[in-house]
Design brief:
Chain A: Keywords: Membrane, Transmembrane, Transmembrane helix, Transport. Chain A: Belongs to the binding-protein-dependent transport system permease family. The complex is a heterodimer of chains A (about 325) and B (about 290). By secondary structure, chain A is mainly α. Chain A contains twelve helices and four strands; from the N terminus they run αββαααααααββαααα. Chain A is about 65% helix and about 5% strand. The longest helix of chain A has about 35 residues. Chain A is extended. Chain B has a two-stranded antiparallel ribbon with strand order 1-2. The longest helix of chain B is centred in the last third of the chain and has 39 residues. Classes of the chains: A mainly alpha (about 325), B mainly alpha (about 290). The interface between A and B is large, with 50 and 52 residues.
Chain lengths: ~325, ~290
């Protein structure tokens, strides 16, 4: 796995963001640099939001905070949340799927049409609908702490697609269960649990890993969509002041919030919403790189064997012979 | 009969999901509010009955308005965009697949790889870039190719459809590439080739018929993904569609109406497609 360039590149991008995020906070603290205007020859030439320059590679936001700093500080929340959501989803869905595929096979049919109804509910909409009571600050302030809210959000988002994922795994397990070697194992007296542990799980390990990667990518997208709806990771600070109400704000600097709160600046300061989304895209890209690398490390020779078979001179020679013989036969059957 | 049972189970699932936020609000303070949950389901279902009396808050008009028949305009607009994008995505991806299948193995693998990585572009990025490009083009040339947001009773079509279609096209393209390649390994393709049919003919006539069925069945996931994208699209373009309508009416009834408005057409589409392909396959087996 570690020899696959794809995997290593993807891993290092993610690791860079994560490590960079913690290092940044450790060195510069959890408030990014702030600048209100740029002076040149004693005159102010540009006020916040500053466009990207050498000093501020990604520009600053409308309050003059360095965008790169904000993105680095927020990286850990977004990435860890996405990984955690996908991980807890798999932790629930994999055992549930195996249970459905083996012990509860009778109920698999109707449960799968139940899960099928989830395919008509857009995930983002569902997530927003379910998470609004958790994340939107009520008028009297939050009754929960930041970490509680993050934990609730992670669990909720994990639960949302558990039915679909576990039905997927159950169907896959049911397919495998009808294979002959499993029948043989059953005849030899293996119990259901042993079959799951020794046969079904090792067979599906790669599929499960790929599924995990897909869930991570999906979670990134949903987080970004929620950001658009002003539902940020760990809660949205809402100002109920009727006169000087601030726009809804993200409590941490996580990427979805950075995007969602600056989306209105798209035409004036395009780097503000574009950069967080670009970073999310980069994170998704690195996950897909890792998945590809992982798959290649698991079955590397499929392509190679097929190619060698084609290049083998003997095979070629055989084909030539066959063709000549067929031509000769044809000519004998239909003499000119 | 089976389809009827399926639709009933699906409807039950959607109704159960509609009142979930109440349960979750209960969890936040550490109690199980089963009673409130079922009460809410009951009142929602009861409220449905005199269907003409349902009134929703309309964020555009700024007051309560009767749901029917006003809501049909929203639903129709959303569905138009969704299905136009779907048709574009399917047509383009299948056409591209057929063309790519005629190329060499090596090129095909490259294309598949590129598609795989292109899939990781977030939809938000595509929408924002499209809006920026339209404005940049307008600034340069003074020609407004399309409006980038809806104000009043306007309708914009091709730009949202394009934005919505790009990612599904990429997904379906890769998916149908995989299916066609799978099909290529079948015996009948080899036989056809041995009989001397040209590559174009085999791909277009023989493989196409078989591959399109599994592309259809796998397109359900793409549809699901498109629904989420449609939601974001309506928000970002301010399209007067059903999703935007819901974001002003976040309560169980609004949720039900929204989900059902595209659940029914999509379910019909898939039920019909399944019936069509399955019956055709059976006919062939007999004849």
């Amino acid at each position: 796995m570690w020899k696959q360039p794809y995997f290593v590149i993807g891993f290092s991008i993610l690791a860079f963001f994560l490590a960079g995020s913690f290092v940044y906070e450790w060195i510069w603290g959890n408030v990014p640099r702030q600048i209100h205007y740029v002076m040149e020859n004693g005159r102010a030439v540009e006020g916040a939001p500053l466009s990207p320059s050498w000093q501020y590679p990604l520009g600053t936001d409308q309050y003059g905070y360095d965008l790169l700093g904000k993105l680095m500080l927020g990286a850990k929340y977004t990435i860890l949340a996405a990984l955690a959501v996908a991980a807890s989803r798999m932790l629930i869905a994999v055992p549930a799927g195996y249970l459905l595929g083996t012990y509860l096979d009778k109920h698999r049919k109707w449960l799968s049409s139940f899960a099928d109804s989830m395919h008509y509910i857009p995930l983002t909409l569902f997530a927003a609908y379910v998470l609004t009571p958790v994340l939107w600050m009520p008028e009297e302030g939050f009754s929960t702490t930041l970490w509680e809210r993050i934990a609730i959000q992670v669990v909720m988002m994990a639960l949302l697609t558990v039915p679909i994922v576990s039905i997927l795994i159950a169907n896959e397990a049911a397919l495998l269960r009808d294979k002959e070697y499993i029948l043989a194992a059953k005849t030899l007296g293996a119990g259901r649990f042993r079959i799951i542990r020794k046969h079904l799980y090792p067979q599906m390990r790669e599929k499960i890993a790929v599924l995990y990667g897909q869930q991570v990518m999906e979670t990134f997208i949903v987080l970004a969509h929620l950001g658009l709806l002003n539902l940020f990771l760990g809660g949205t600070k809402v100002s109920y002041d009727p006169l000087f109400g601030d726009p809804p704000m993200s409590i941490s600097y996580e990427w979805a919030g950075l995007f969602g709160s600056t989306f209105r600046y798209l035409q004036g300061a395009p780097w503000l919403p574009l950069m967080p989304v670009l970073f999310i895209g980069l994170a998704i890209f690195s996950v897909s790189l890792m998945m590809e690398g992982y798959l290649r490390s698991k079955n590397p020779d499929i392509k190679r064997t097929r190619q060698t078979a084609q290049d083998e001179p003997v095979v070629d020679w055989n084909r030539q012979q066959l063709r000549e013989k067929m031509v000769r036969l044809k000519n004998e059957d239909f003499p000119k | 009969m089976k389809a009827l049972l399926n639709i009933l189970i699906a409807i039950a699932g959607i109704i159960l999901a509609g009142s979930l936020p109440l349960l979750i609000a209960g969890w936040l303070v550490g109690e199980w509010r089963w009673q409130v949950y079922f009460e809410s389901i009951r009142t929602t279902l009861e409220g449905l009955w005199p269907i003409g009396d349902i009134a929703f808050f309309n964020f555009r008009a700024g007051q309560e308005m009767a749901l029917f028949p006003n809501v049909f305009a929203y639903i129709a607009y959303s569905l138009e965009i969704l299905f136009l994008a779907l048709i574009v995505a399917v047509a383009v991806s299948v056409a591209l697949t057929v063309m790519t299948m005629l190329l060499q193995e090596k090129v095909r693998e490259r294309v598949k790889m590129a598609l795989y990585f292109l899939e990781s572009i977030p939809d938000l990025l595509i929408i924002m870039l499209a809006q920026l490009l339209v404005i940049a083009f307008f600034k340069q040339t003074g020609i407004l190719v399309s409006k980038i947001a809806v104000a009043g009773d306007d309708r914009i079509y091709w730009l949202p459809v394009l934005c919505l279609a790009i990612l599904p096209t990429i997904q379906l393209y890769r998916l149908s590439m995989l299916t066609f390649q799978e099909e290529e390994r079948q015996m009948y393709v080899e036989l056809a080739r041995a009989l001397g049919f040209s590559k174009v003919y085999i791909v277009l006539v023989h493989m196409f018929r078989n591959a399109i069925i599994s592309v259809f069945f796998q397109s359900k996931k793409t549809m699901w993904f498109m629904l989420s994208n449609l939601f974001v699209l309506e928000l970002m373009f301010n399209l007067p569609g059903i999703m935007l309508f819901l974001s002003g009416n976040m309560h169980p009834m609004g949720f039900l109406v929204t989900i059902f408005s595209f659940f029914l057409p999509m379910f019909l589409l898939y039920a019909f497609g399944e019936w069509f392909f399955v019956s055709r396959r059976n006919q062939k087996a007999v004849g």
